[in-house]
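Let us practice reading a record.
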Amino acid sequence: MSTKNGSYAEIYPTLPVNGNGVHTHPTNGTAINGKSVADISKSVPARPANSSPEVAPDETAYDEHFEGLVSEILTRLGESPERDGLQRTPLRVAKALDFLTSGYTTDLNEVVNDAIFEDAGEEMVLVKDIEFYSLCEHHMLPFYGKVHIAYIPNTKIIGLSKLARIADVFARRLQVQERLTNQIADALDEILQPQGVAVVAEASHFCMMMRGVQKQNSTTLTSAMRGVFKTDAQQRDQFMRMIGK
């Protein structure tokens, strides 16, 4: 199935990884933020195979290039990477950022893992209050909140946990909330081809809380409606009532 502007894979590609663990350029030549994935991947060093986000007590190296960049940042900030509390910080930061951006190299098909089933039901399926954590692509500061995902089946249903996992695939990237919301909706629309998909995300953004306008109590809401949720006000209103909006 294709979305309005092309196939899902063309619009929201994962970044394939070659045998050395380096992100490679997909054949469709899709651009991200005006740059081809090939341009971006040139500066992405190899990600260690079988890496874990946890730092083992005896681990001394994870990704020397990445850790060196973090050390440079610490030095630029006026710190000493050699002081007691910071000696393992580059390793921890490298691992943390690899985990927080692991959505780039996650295969959506593997996430779904055949958890799609035939079913004649035509009533709304809703999983609400799915927590998510992401990084704002403008400042690389966290934004976090919850997302509500609903769909109306069209002969197919999906395992409920997969809705949360799909959200994580797109949250674990450098993101903006508007795109994140649409990517979740388009992915589910592509996978299930349902009668409709509705996604609402609500989040707090550290780039507004810790810096800039410093508004700690602000919340951003975004929505993405597909199919009958976009064309049928009654279905849309029912969904909004069910999530308390």
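A brief commentary: The mean pLDDT is 83.
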